[in-house]
Amino acid sequence: MEKPFVLLLFEDCCVKMKQSKLMEKRIKMVTMNELIALCKNRGFIFAGSEIYGGLSNTWDYGPLGVELKNNIKRLWWKNFIEQEFNNVGLDSAILMNPTVWEASGHLANFTDPLMDCKACKTRIRADKLIEEWLFKNNKTVPFSIETLSNEEMEKFIDDNNIACPCCGKHDWTPIRQFNLMFKTFQGVTEEKKSEIYLRPETAAGIFVNFKNVLRSTRGKLPLGIGQIGKSFRNEITPGNFIFRVREFEQMELEFFCAPKESDDWFKYYRQKAFDFACNMGINKDLLRLRDHDKQELSHYSTATTDIEFNFPFGWAELWGIANRTNYDLTQHQKFSGQDLSYLDPYTNEKYIPYVIEPSVGVDRMLLTILCSAYTVEKLENGEERIVMKFLPKVAPIKVAILPLSNKLNDKAQEVYKQIAEQFRCEFDASGSIGKRYRRQDEIGTPYCVTVDFDTLEDEAVTVRDRDTMKQERIKLKDLIDYLSKKLA
Ligand code: GAP
């Protein structure tokens, strides 16, 4: 049985308290409202189209959010493409020939079970209604809700008298399936034959380019093709901030290999994805690997694991890793009429490659990093500070340059220019130095460099460490070396 979240936090808190005599530390379980407020106030994420009253469940990434997002994407690319001997990158189009979605099964099967409350007209996903009811009532069931048929879900909702979360009535329409793809029209005429779709995943762009990449890179299997890009799903119940949105980014790798090697590659990428998540500063105690049982597996998959994170609203999927067998290439071969098989040059064996797919959302990973980083510390003087404890490689801003007085702006700008060549930094000249430190703590800047009047004499600055709050005097000529070691 999972440890209760409160206990995990308590244990974490005890370890941290032992680590420091300077201050009492505690990890506070951030609520979604606290996180959203911090993200808005500090410039990570804003509500979409806000000055027009917003567009529900759309979010815009602000100056810090875009840095954080870029760091996540850069690190994924480095780990999954550049550092993997067999892997290459791709950037395929969002709009694709609609037959692609027939072949992939999205037109027929990419649906969610939808029901309406007859009393207040709220539209809701039946499976999510059940999951939330289980979570709120601290109940578990020995099966995955996703595997239930429409009839089974309706029965479960009726048996447990699950009410509408908006009006409290229990008066549901029967469940019907709703396709999640966004439809639009190509060209000037809005007719059936010009209908196209915004892609619901980036993977399809990789499958249709498998032969192009293999030929142009003179590649041999195993071969991984990865890409990062926007996907669109007309989710019925988006929500929980950026957890489930209709427009999001995915980082997907399709790793093509021989069928007999696919089990080993699945295990390899399952572990690699988990290690990557931990190395991004995501709290390991709030992560778990959940293998799909036979009942939950897609008909084409021989193994699937979800990496789940304990969000403030409960355990939910961060990352899916699947052995998709040769399903996708077989389908695209059938619908395109092109030969997508591979001839092994060493064994002369001809086969349709198996695919291992680790697939994760950038936005969802960003949310787990925000939840993990959010820390409240009680200081010696009784005050509290909020610190976003990002790892330096993930932090949106690595160094803040703070002139103690406006009279020192020129000197501080010189320092800024010197550091900006190496690290993403920020210049902050307004407010008391204490308030500026607090702001940098809240945006997770690992180091603050204060330029004071002595700097003009001794060519040295004060460097403050975000986590220990200790300060050191460093000569300007040694500053880059000092920061490079600290931020490595
Ligand atoms: N090609 C496989 C695929 O797309 P998926 O489980 O539907 O699989 C993969 O999506 C990942 O994309 C998820 O684990 C999640 O991180 C992210 N994701 C999926 N739907 C999302 C949504 N509506 N909002 C944000 N992220 C989403």
Descriptive report:
The chain is of the alpha+beta class and 488 residues long. It contains 16 helices and 24 strands. The chain has helices spanning 5-19, 32-42, 63-82, 99-104, 106-109, 126-136, 150-159, 203-208, 210-216, 262-279, 327-336, 362-373, 409-420, 433-443, 453-458, 479-487; strands spanning 24-26, 45-47, 59-61, 87-89, 111-116, 123-125, 176-179, 183-185, 195-197, 223-232, 247-257, 287-291, 303-311, 314-323, 342-343, 350-351, 354-361, 374-378, 384-388, 399-403, 425-427, 447-451, 460-465, 471-475. The chain has a 7-stranded mixed β-sheet, with helices on both faces. The protein starts with a helix and ends with a helix. The structure holds glycyl-adenosine-5'-phosphate (GAP).
- Over the alpha carbons, how many angstroms does the gyration radius reach? 26 Å
- Name the bound molecules: glycyl-adenosine-5'-phosphate
Identify the strand order in the major beta sheet: 4-10-11-17-14-13-12
Distance between the termini: 38 Å
Oligomer: single chain
Mean pLDDT: 93
Keywords:
binds glycyl-adenosine-5'-phosphate; 34% helix; 7-stranded mixed beta sheet; alpha+beta; disordered N terminus; 488 residues; single chain; 5-stranded mixed beta sheet
